[in-house]
Write a structure and sequence with these properties.
Shape: globular
Structural class: alpha/beta
Number of helices: 7
CATH architecture: 3-Layer(aba) Sandwich
Number of domains: 1
Strand order of the largest sheet: 3-2-1-4-5
Distance between the termini: 13 Å
Order of helices and strands: EHHEHHEHHEEH
Helix content: 55-70%
Number of strands: 5
Largest sheet: 5 strands, parallel
Strand content: 5-15%
Oligomer: single chain
CATH topology: Rossmann fold
């Protein structure tokens, strides 16, 4: 099964912003071989930038290495940019994430900001809900 991780899940993991739910969800997907985890290529850049700013450069680089090891990448194309720009999403970045997920036929989008994806045709679940599936 293919799942798409929104950037906020990565930040929740690396900045420990939730109660460990992102870590549990990712561990479950990895260790149970229950899902192939995808992120958009811009997510790794945004994750590095935010971790470098709020944690440290060493933490940011460590996170990048982990993402490179365990995640697949949905590349942002001109088609995806055009789809996002023409969409009804209120936030352009969320629309880009959504169309990246569509491009890889993701079964779920995992995000802790479900309200950002109200226009989604892909089921949206948070980390805790993923664990309950």
């Amino acid at each position: 099964m293919i799942i798409f991780l929104d950037t906020n899940i990565l930040l929740d993991l690396f900045l420990e912003r939730d109660q460990g739910e992102a870590k549990q969800m990712i561990d479950s997907a990895l260790y149970n071989n229950s899902a192939s985890m995808y992120i958009s290529d811009i997510s790794i850049i945004n994750t590095y930038y935010i971790l470098n700013k709020y944690a440290s450069k060493a933490n940011a680089l460590s996170a990048v290495k982990l993402l490179l090891k365990y995640c697949y990448f949905a590349e942002i194309s001109l088609k995806i940019i055009n789809q996002a720009a023409s969409s009804d999403f209120s936030d352009f970045e969320d629309a880009v994430q959504y169309y990246c997920a569509m491009s890889i036929n993701s079964k779920y989008i995992i995000t802790n900001n479900k309200k950002d994806f109200t226009k989604s045709e892909i089921p949206i679940v948070n980390a805790s809900e993923w664990l309950d599936l």
